[in-house]
Structure formats: structure tokens, C-alpha cells
Amino acid sequence: MLPATGEPGRSSFMMMSQSFNRRHSPNRRKTRVDAMMDLDGEMHPVVIRDVSFEGLKIAVPVAIAPGSPVTIHVLDRRIPAIVHWCRHGFAGIHLLERLEGQTLIALETADDALAEFR
Fold first, then answer.
1. Tell me, what's the pLDDT at 25?
2. What whole-number distance in Å separates Cα of residue 31 and Cα of residue 110?
3. Which residues of 40-71 are buried (b: 16+ CB within 10 A; e: fewer)?
4. What is the pTM of this model?
5. Secondary structure (DSSP) of 50-63
6. What are the extents of the domains in the chain?
7. In 3D, which of 83, 5, 8 has the Cα closest to residue 38?
8. CA 39 to chain centre
9. 25-117 has which fold?
10. Which of 42-46, 86-90, 99-103, 113-117 has the lowest mean pLDDT?
11. What proportion of the chain, given as a percentage, has pLDDT over 70?
């Protein structure tokens, strides 16, 4: 029997939770890239866990207040941003400027040893 949505593998609950989850973005790409975060003049090691043109999800070693300005240093780039949320060792980062396409691709594929062959 098909789920109520008529789409194989997708339940009504899954679709409903995505439609009400304002953080859901089909444009996010999972990754794992080591970076540094400048917070109030102090550098902290972070790991970028997902990336989109307008934001990042990062694993953080310290709690960060929402609204805090930060700069992410990764792949020889400085990315100015604002902390949108922080909980359970992760933070959502809103970028002040959209990532360029090449930077986005570099972040998406930084941990993929086979990326150049795809």
C-alpha cells in the first residue's frame, strides 16, 4: 500500500514536518570541512557540516549567542556571518554575502576524495 501522499517512501508526516520546518532547505549540501571561526577576536576551531549559498551549519566547541557576528576562515577565504541559532554543539550561521558558486563547490567537495572524478 502507498503512503497517503501517493509518493513511494514519503509519508504525510514527513511532508508535513518539512512544510512546517522553516529551516528545511533542499539547497543544503552535507560536507565535513575543518575551519576556524573568529568570535570576538578569539579563534575557535569548527567543522562545517552543511553548506548552502546563504548559510552554514557548523559544529562548535563553545556556545554562541544568536546575533553574534563571526568570521569563518576556510579554504583561504574569510566569510563574514551572523549566528542564527546555537544548540547541542552546533550553530546555524547566516552569511552576510551569498557564497560564490566556486566557493560553494569547493566546500561541498572538500572532504570528497573522488570529487574530481565525478
1. 55
2. 8
3. eeeebebbbbbbbeebbbbebeeebeeeeebe
4. 0.72
5. EEETTEEEEE-SS-
6. 25-117
7. 83
8. 18
9. Thrombin, subunit H (2.40.10)
10. 113-117
11. 72
Q: Does the pLDDT of residue 92 top 60, yes or no?
A: yes
Q: Which residues contact 36 (CB under 8 A, 6 or more apart)?
A: 43, 44, 45, 46, 72, 73, 74
Separation of alpha carbons 72 and 33, rounded Å: 12
Amino acid at 76: D
Please provide the DSSP assignment of the chain as one string. Answer: ---TTSSTT--HHHHHHHHH-TT--TT-EEEEEEEEEEETTEEEEEEEEEEETTEEEEE-SS---TT-EEEEEETTEEEEEEEEEEETTEEEEEESSPPPHHHHHHHHHTT-TTGGG-
pLDDT (tens digit per residue) in 12-50: 444 444 443 445 555 778 899 999 999 999 999 999 999
- Residue pair 80/95 in contact (Cβ under 8 Å)? The answer is yes
